[in-house]
Amino acid sequence: MMTNKDRILIVDDEADIRDLFRDVAEECGYEAAEAGNRDQFCAALTDFQPTLVLLDLTMPDGDGVELLREMADRTSQAGVILASGRDKRVLSTSERLGRSLGLTMHPPLQKPIDVVALENALTTCRSVVAEQQVRDAHPARPPLEPVTVVELADAIENGQLEPFFQPKVDLLSGMDFPIIGAEALVRWNHPQRGLVPPDAFIPLAEENGLIGALTQCVLTRTIAHLRQWLDAGIAVPVSVNLSPNQLTDLSLPDHIADLLADAGVSPSLLIIEITEQAAMADIGLATDILTRLRLKGIAVSLDDFGAGYSSLVEIYRLPLSEMKFDRSLIVDIDRDEDARTVVKALVPLARALDLTVCAEGIETAKSAAFLQAIGCHRAQGYHFSKPVPADAFTALLMDQQLGGKTVSAAMS
Ligand code: C2E
Ligand code: MG
Ligand code: MG
User: Fold this and answer.
1) 408 lies in a domain?
2) How many angstroms is it from 240 CA to the middle of ligand 2?
3) For labelling, which of 13, 132, 226, 328 has a CA lying 20 to 30 Å from the CA of 140?
4) Hey, which of 152, 166, 185, 334 would you mutate to test ligand 1's pocket, going by the most ligand atoms within 8 Å of its Cβ?
5) Do 114 and 174 have their domain in common?
6) Confidence tier at 3 by pLDDT (50, 70, 90)
7) pLDDT for res 404
8) Ligand 2 centre and the CA of 322: distance in Å?
């Protein structure tokens, strides 16, 4: 028997706790079912089809992580609230694990659970479920066929690739987050598909020998924009991303320096972003190339720090000017005290090494305020601006100039 009500499955081996949670859930408008062991849990997933699961992590006959895997195997769409009296790190790690399994994880609750905290959590989840139902009723258009190498080669040749620019703001100027730079992020302006994001074609370019031509296109167009902004009296440094296999091309520093010289743009206005994975593929070659970029006055930024490949050692072994915290780390600081502790320790370390610290993926005022308070220099994220076409970025720069703020000098 299925109703339109939100359905919560309460999973706990203690009957008293299940009763208490059931009362609270029903008061919050849920239809509730209970499971006291793994078999009951599996049966209820099929028969009751919960929209939300309140899951005790420690059960005598199967821990909560196994139950999360069971939900993932069945591609369950139910949201999950984990509850446990264990160390909070076990709780937050399990939450992350659930997310990596593709489950919708809500903030976990530490046992003993306060009834008010439970009511708040259940009420918040109800509105999330309602939004999900609206989305399910209006499914997104089916994905288009993947792009082909031939199409991509044509697109590079015919100028269909264009850099968008995402502003980088200064967190520490004391002013209202002025723009002090941008990251160039490539988009494919496809005649039929519309704007195609880089994740849909960068791997294809890398696997098929097109990444050199793609980067050349992004660099040339970015440097042309740098020239236009200089002509309008604005010196704004811009970052360009390199792919891993490009850090083996010894001619790269001269090539980039030539492009800048031809346009009459100072090397101090260009920042090259690399990932650590790229630098590690052949550390000797990478160090050679990056050092020569620095000697030519081009800054080098370590992108995606904290995304999984980073080791602290590289931040002093590579000739870096900037370190960028990955969005996955920044997302965690809003909800995880341990993540805040790690970032809080890393910022002074990077600063002591004379690195500029930039945080990427800032989506909330809360994370911006936290990063500002711990001395992070720069930030980039939807909270400030999404990546925008060059014209729109020019307009942002012009507005800022009119408002009396200036784009600060480039770093080197
Ligand atoms: P990335 O270099 O780490 O760039 C940051 C990505 O995070 C961008 O995605 C940006 O739009 C996104 N982002 C920034 N702030 C937020 C936020 O607050 N929330 C969310 N959800 N996302 C945010 P995008 O443009 O899709 O680029 C993805 C990746 O593609 C880039 O990651 C970079 O690795 C690669 N890429 C982009 N352009 C180029 C390029 O010209 N050459 C190469 N080799 N790779 C590029
Ligand atoms: Mg980047
Ligand atoms: Mg990044």
Assistant:
1) no
2) 7
3) 328
4) 185
5) no
6) low
7) 67
8) 12
Kindly report the protein residue whose alpha carbon is nearest to atom 4 of ligand 1. Answer: 185
Q: CA–CA separation, 274 vs 321, rounded Å?
A: 11
126, 82, 242, 181: which is closest to 411 by C-alpha? 181
Q: Which ligand is nearest to the CA of 203?
A: 1
27 C-alpha vs ligand 1 centroid, how far in Å? 44
200 has a pLDDT exceeding 70: yes
Angstrom CA distances, 37 to 58, 80, 185, 266, 320, stand at 11, 17, 50, 67, 53
Separation CA 349–CA 345 (nearest Å): 7
Residue nearest to atom 27 of ligand 1 (CA): 198
136 lines ligand 1 (CB under 6 A): no
Q: Quick one: pLDDT at residue 17?
A: 92
| Ligand having the closest approach to the CA of 273 | 2
Residue 269: DSSP 8-state: G
Respond yes or no on whether the N-terminal peptide bond of residue 112 is cis (omega within 30° of 0).
Answer: yes
Tokens of 185: 């992020």
Report d(CA 17, CA 9) in Å as an integer: 13
> Which residues sit opposite 356 in a β-bridge?
322
CATH of the domain at 304: 3.20.20.450
Query: Structural domain of residue 16, as residue ranges?
Result: 7-137
Contact yes or no for 333/339 (Cβ under 8 A): yes
Residue of the CA atom closest to atom 3 of ligand 1: 304
Confidence at residue 280, expressed as pLDDT on a 0 to 100 scale: 78
* Beta-bridge mates of residue 191: none
For 335-348, write each residue's pLDDT tens digit.
888 889 999 999 99
**CB-based contacts of 226, cutoff 8 Å, min separation 6:** 236, 238, 263, 265, 269, 270
Give the list of residues 6+ apart from residue 400 with CB closer than 8 angstroms, or none. Answer: 178, 179, 406, 407
Q: Which amino acid is at 195?
A: L
Model-level pTM?
A: 0.82
3-state secondary structure (DSSP) of residue 179: strand
Dmax over CA atoms of the chain, in Å, equals 76
Tell me which of 162, 241, 326 to substitute to probe ligand 1's pocket, judged by most ligand atoms within 8 Å of the beta carbon: 241
Q: Do 63 and 40 form a contact (C-beta atoms < 8 A)?
A: no
306 Cβ below 6 A of ligand 1: no
185: CA distance to ligand 1 center in Å? Answer: 6
**Whether 235 and 329 share a structural domain:** yes
* The predicted structure's pLDDT at residue 1: 42
How many structural domains is the chain composed of? 2
